[in-house]
Structure formats: structure tokens, C-alpha cells
């Protein structure tokens, strides 16, 4: 079992991102275009709380929420190596779909992508006081994938955001 990287944790759930995708290499029905309403849960950690006593002020996550909306709200997701990419791009240009090209549209890669987004925001804003250590990406109530890891910059800082001194 993976334990949180610090003493204080919290989580934030975002839901209601209807989009469609396809896994063109899948030998079954997943190679067809199909859709879900995706949802995401982020877990955050802090070595010390902010002035208000929060790990993360949830209202400060609006930039992350905007990224989620821009990427997943009524969009069509395809892998960057999809052999029909030119056709999807043409349909996008014609206004038939709102295309997003991803390394991989699967929930595992999505969870890792969102972990990166959250940590980019937190590192810049909190200078190492907080991190996102886990993301759960769901395509429906039955199917989810999780990515968890502690950013190297969080592991190497003390509670004041300064690098740990070598002993």
C-alpha cells in the first residue's frame, strides 16, 4: 500500500466531463468511437498547512479545473498515433468535433497527465509546500485508473519548502 508522502492530506473531486475517444489498436469494441462522462479525484499532501490551515485551498484549483474542462468537456480524444488522425483533424476544422490529441487516451495515461498538471501548478504556486501524490481517473462508475507518485522536488524539501540539508 502506498502511503501519503506527508502528514497532511486532502482530496478534490471533479466530475461531469463528457467526451469520447477510441483506442484504435484495441482488438475489441474499444477501437470504435465511444464516450463517457469522465471524473477525476486528486489527492494532495503538505508538510505544513497554509495560513488558513489548508493543505490546498480548493478555490485555488480553478486553473486546474479550467484545464480539465478545456481538455475533456464535449471533446473527442485520439491517440497521437491514430491512423485516422488526418481525418479527425479535418472533421475538427469543419466544426464536426472538438479534437484533442493525446499521447494515449486511456485512463492510465490520463491519470498520469493530470498528476503532472496538478504538480506543475502546485510547484509554481507553493514552492514545494504541497504536492499531488495521487490521481484517480474514471470513465464511469465501474472503470478507473490511478497514478500515484511523489514528485522528486517534494521529497527533497523540508516543511519550509527549502531543500533538506545533507547529513
Structural topology:
Elements: E1 8-21, E2 34-46, H1 62-72, E3 75-79, H2 85-93, E4 99-102, H3 107-126, E5 130-138, E6 144-148, H4 152-155
Parallel strand pairs: 1-3, 3-4
Antiparallel strand pairs: 1-2, 2-5, 5-6
Helix pairs in contact: 1-3
Attribute tags:
4 helices; single chain; six-stranded mixed β-sheet; 26% helix; alpha/beta; 6 strands; 167 residues
Q: Count of helical segments? A: 4
Order of helices and strands: EEHEHEHEEH
Shape: elongated
Global structural class:
alpha/beta
Helix content: 25-40%
- What topology, given as strand order, has the largest sheet? 4-3-1-2-5-6
**How many strands?**
6
The residue-averaged pLDDT reads 91
**Rg from Cα:** 18 Å
Largest sheet: 6 strands, mixed
Give the N-terminus to C-terminus distance in angstroms: 29 Å
Would you identify the regions where 5 or more consecutive residues have pLDDT less than 50? 159-167
Strand % is 25-35%
Describe the structure.
- It is a single chain.
- With 167 residues, this protein is of the alpha/beta class.
- It is 26% helix and 30% strand.
- It contains four helices and six strands; from the N terminus they run E-E-H-E-H-E-H-E-E-H.
- It has a six-stranded mixed beta sheet with strand order 4-3-1-2-5-6, with helices on both faces.
- Helix 1 packs antiparallel against helix 3.
- The longest helix is centred in the C-terminal third of the chain and has 20 residues.
- It is elongated and about 50 Å long.
- The two termini are 29 Å apart.
Amino acid at each position: 500500500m502506498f502511503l501519503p508522502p506527508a502528514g497532511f492530506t486532502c482530496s478534490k473531486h471533479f466530475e461531469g466531463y463528457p467526451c469520447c475517444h477510441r483506442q484504435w489498436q484495441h482488438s475489441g469494441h474499444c477501437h470504435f468511437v465511444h464516450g463517457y462522462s469522465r471524473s477525476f479525484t486528486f489527492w494532495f499532501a503538505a508538510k505544513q498547512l497554509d495560513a488558513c490551515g489548508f493543505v490546498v485551498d480548493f478555490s485555488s484549483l480553478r486553473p486546474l479545473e479550467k484545464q480539465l474542462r478545456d481538455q475533456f468537456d464535449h471533446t473527442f480524444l485520439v491517440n497521437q498515433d491514430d491512423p485516422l488522425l488526418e481525418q479527425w483533424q479535418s472533421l475538427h476544422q469543419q466544426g464536426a468535433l472538438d479534437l484533442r490529441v493525446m499521447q494515449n487516451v486511456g485512463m492510465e495515461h490520463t491519470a498520469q497527465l493530470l498528476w503532472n498538471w496538478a504538480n506543475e501548478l502546485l510547484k509554481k504556486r507553493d514552492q514545494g509546500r504541497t504536492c499531488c501524490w495521487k490521481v484517480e481517473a474514471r470513465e464511469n462508475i465501474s472503470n478507473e485508473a490511478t497514478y500515484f507518485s511523489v514528485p522528486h522536488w517534494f521529497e527533497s524539501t523540508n516543511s519550509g519548502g527549502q531543500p533538506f540539508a545533507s547529513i
